[in-house]
Each structure stands twice: as C-alpha cells, then as structure tokens.
Q: What sequence folds into this?
C-alpha cells in the first residue's frame, strides 16, 4: 500500500512515514524493494529483449504510420526533476539549471517503449547517456542484431535501418 500510494501520488517520504506510522528509512526500503520486484516481475513480459523480427515489425509500422522507411525506433532523453542528493556535487545539475536524473527511452511507431535507461546524471548529455546504456553496448558488440540495409522505395539507394533522434545523439550508421 505504501508503494502504491507513492507511485500514484508522488507523496514525499516524510508524508508517507506520518500517514503509515513508519520510519522514513523503512518507507525508503519498502519503496525501493517493491519497485524492484515489480520491475523484475513485469520487464520480461512488457519489455522483452529485442529480436531481429521485432525490429523488422517496428520498421514496417514506421513506414506505414509515419512514412519513415527503415526506422526502427525513436530515441530521446527526459530530465526528471529531483532534489539534490546529499554530497552529490554537481553531477545531477543539468543545463536547464535544476537537479535531475535522465530517463532515456526508445519507442516504436505507436509510442510504446521498447527499451529504457533510467538514472543517469542530469549533467550528462543524451549522447553520453546513450553511450553508457545497455542497448548501445549490445548493438556495438553485435549482441543485438539490427536488420540489414535495404533499398529505399522508388530508389536504388541501399539505406541502413536506424533510430531517429535529435542532434544530441552521435551520428552513427544506426542513428
């Protein structure tokens, strides 16, 4: 109940501690352990590892819905405002002049998350967050296979499959 209240309302820990007659450190542990258990129970069902056929399906959806040929996802980062953690220095302080952690996500043509990376320092750029992400490392190592390049419609140009992102991301054959 404590974790559900926290997730539903965003109540601060002291408020939850008072409401549920528990210590703040107990509230922190309950929320941390419960959200970890929820993630572990649901991640494989709602965000399974990406396969070549998943990317091909996503590319087809982008082509039909958005007229973006060979696109296999849209990537961006979002700064989630936080209070400055004690003794954290300036690592969480971002260019927007507040403290944050970065949520980086890749979505399919329907806006459904296919992968997320949460918790990077707010001072990191989107490109830096991506370079330290699990999906980047898996793509670079070949653990995740992207579809092979194919011809663009009405053209003889062979073009790679790619993630679309803003100019904060590095120019790669797949971005």
A:
């Amino acid at each position: 109940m404590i974790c559900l209240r926290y997730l539903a309302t965003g109540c601060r820990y002291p408020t939850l501690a008072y409401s549920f007659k528990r210590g703040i450190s107990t509230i922190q542990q309950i929320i941390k352990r419960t959200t970890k258990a929820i993630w572990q129970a649901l991640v494989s069902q709602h965000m399974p590892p990406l396969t070549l056929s998943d990317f091909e399906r996503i590319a087809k959806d982008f082509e039909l819905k958005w007229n973006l040929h060979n696109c296999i996802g849209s990537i961006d980062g979002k700064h989630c405002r936080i209070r400055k953690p004690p003794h954290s220095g300036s690592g969480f302080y971002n260019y927007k002049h507040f403290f944050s952690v970065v949520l980086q996500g890749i979505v399919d043509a329907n806006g459904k998350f296919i992968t997320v990376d949460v918790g990077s320092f707010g001072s990191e750029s989107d490109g830096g967050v991506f370079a330290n992400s699990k999906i980047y490392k898996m793509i670079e190592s070949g653990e995740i296979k992207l579809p092979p390049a194919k011809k663009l419609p009405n053209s003889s140009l062979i073009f790679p499959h790619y993630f679309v992102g803003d100019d904060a991301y590095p120019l790669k054959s797949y971005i």
